Amino acid sequence: MIKTVLIDDEPLARSMVAEYLESYPQITVVAECNDGFEGAKAIMQYQPDLIFLDIQMPKINGFEMLEIIDRQPAVIFTTAFDDHAIRAFEQHAVDYLLKPISKTRFDQAVTKFLDTRGLAADRENTRKLIDDVSHTGGKLERVVVKTGTKIKIIPTASIIYLEADDDYVKIHTDEGTFMKNKTMASFEEQLDPLQFVRVHRSFLVKIDHIIRLEPHEKDSHIAVLSDGKKVSVSKNGYARLKQLLGM
Amino acid sequence: MSSIPYTSSRQRLINISCFIIWVICAFIQTALLWWFGVDINLALNDSLISATLTSLCCYVIANALNHYLPRRKGYFYIVIWGLVLAAISVSLDRWILQYIIHDQNYLSQIDLSLPLRFFVNALLIAWIAMINILWNIQQEHKENEQRKADAERLAREAELYNLRQQLQPHFLFNSLNSIIALIGRKPEEARNMTFQLSDFLRGTLRKDDQQLIALKDELEHLQLYLSIEKVRFGHRLETQVTYDEACLTKTLPAMIMQPLVENAIKYGLYDTTEKVTIGVACTCNNHMLEIQIENPYDSQSNKPRRGTGFGLRGVQRRLFLLFGRTDLLETHATTHIFTSIIKIPQL
């Protein structure tokens, strides 16, 4: 049995997909969700093989929802009109359906899924897509993270600094520290370069929060931050800081 | 009369050409006088002073024309100005020279040559004035072309934006998707929604930006829109439209509320996951119709508000174009409620 979850904020749009799926007895709809929060929960709970995912949804959009789930199912995106997203889908060869969705087009997408199911390449494509869409749309303005079973939206304005930690990045904010499965490099690329500086291989710091710089060993410095923490500044990082501050 | 924008490159050009005139005048006059057998010192003194005065006059007229471009009738004054300046420069020249050159014989020779000097100066000044005028005309022509191109580009962009707004692709495609979903199980509702959608689209396309319509008609049109949105989001969208009976005959620009209500629904629905109530309240007195639109929102989520700016700006711009006032649109945000208020003066 193939388990699927439908995620769309319009009940009629979900019922449409459910109706089309009736001709595929091997596929069972295990949950229907109104938004990304419910979607993420249902995915953790049911571990579906396939999801139908709308992009424009309340609170967090479809891409942001995908970022916070651990085990990623195959995804067929559904959207009415979004030039930006459609370009990204084509570029990464990820399947998508345009509303209103025709049965023919729907069958194509599902058949393709049934044929290629479990191919790692497809999942890889989706991963790349998420990385890509989250930063071609301008500067990152918020980060969505999961803490236990809760989902938290962090505005980038409340970030103090980021710290690399194995495969994760620790996000230090006014309200505490959160973990995100993402690379420092991608954060560095997506955050506003006039506000955030990579002062060290492991630290990306918001300039406004640097209170002072103290010389450390030969060639390196220590930055004291507004929350009292001290982070190392490498030689390159120091040069970058100097350039940005116009020293 | 028109003022030409002052450009420093232009000023530099005037400075340079006046300097060149000064050098050439001084050089030619000295050479000529020397060739006529005048003592080189006398020739130098004479030509330096007259060249300085001539190029000063050129400088004056060039600068005057830099800031003031005469129309056809004004060309006559330019000729008079040229003659007056030439006369002034020659008299000044003569007046200064009598203190510098003490050779009475040479001074009387200068007196003889005064008409010739006057003539040369007048020609030079007229020539400079003509070049400046030609240049100004060409410049103005170029600016006009540029302005025309800019205006056309702006008009095209606005038209495209309007078309896009009218079509509202996201709304349209989602509505069509809902209709298709309804066709199978609730054909009656599907039929209803199709009628509502076509009435709404017809209303949108028919309306002229400049036209003032009665609040009653605008509210009916809005009702169509709201009922379609309710089919799509019925499970969590509530709307509350209130108005005084007396206001129904008041007029407002067609489609002015639409972008604000759209925004209210969009941000109301996308900022929260709970039930959402959108409030539209219309009140009025003799001079003013006031419409207040409220939606819940979450100041915490800090979502990038794409589109709001343009929607609000568009409304503001239209109100300004129609009534010449910038205080007709207000927005307030508390932590949970976003309110926009439009005031429509009743003429």
TrEMBL record, chain A:
PROSITE patterns: HTH_LYTTR (PS50930), RESPONSE_REGULATORY (PS50110). GO terms for molecular function: DNA binding. Gene3D superfamilies: 3.40.50.2300, LytTr DNA-binding domain. The modification 4-aspartylphosphate is found at residue 54. Keywords: DNA-binding, Phosphoprotein. InterPro entries: CheY-like_superfamily, LytR-like, LytTR_DNA-bd_dom, Sig_transdc_resp-reg_receiver. Residues 143-247 form the HTH LytTR-type domain. PANTHER family: STAGE 0 SPORULATION PROTEIN A HOMOLOG, TRANSCRIPTIONAL REGULATOR-RELATED. It holds the Pfam family LytTR. Residues 3-114 form the Response regulatory domain. This is DNA-binding response regulator. It comes from Parapedobacter defluvii.
From TrEMBL, chain B:
Keywords: Membrane, Transmembrane, Transmembrane helix. Residues 158-237 form the Signal transduction histidine kinase internal region domain. It holds the Pfam family His_kinase. It comes from the Bacteria. The keyword Transmembrane helix applies. The chain crosses the membrane at residues 12-36, 42-62, 74-96, 116-137. This is Signal transduction histidine kinase internal region domain-containing protein. It comes from Parapedobacter defluvii. The lineage of its organism: Bacteria, Pseudomonadati, Bacteroidota, Sphingobacteriia, Sphingobacteriales.
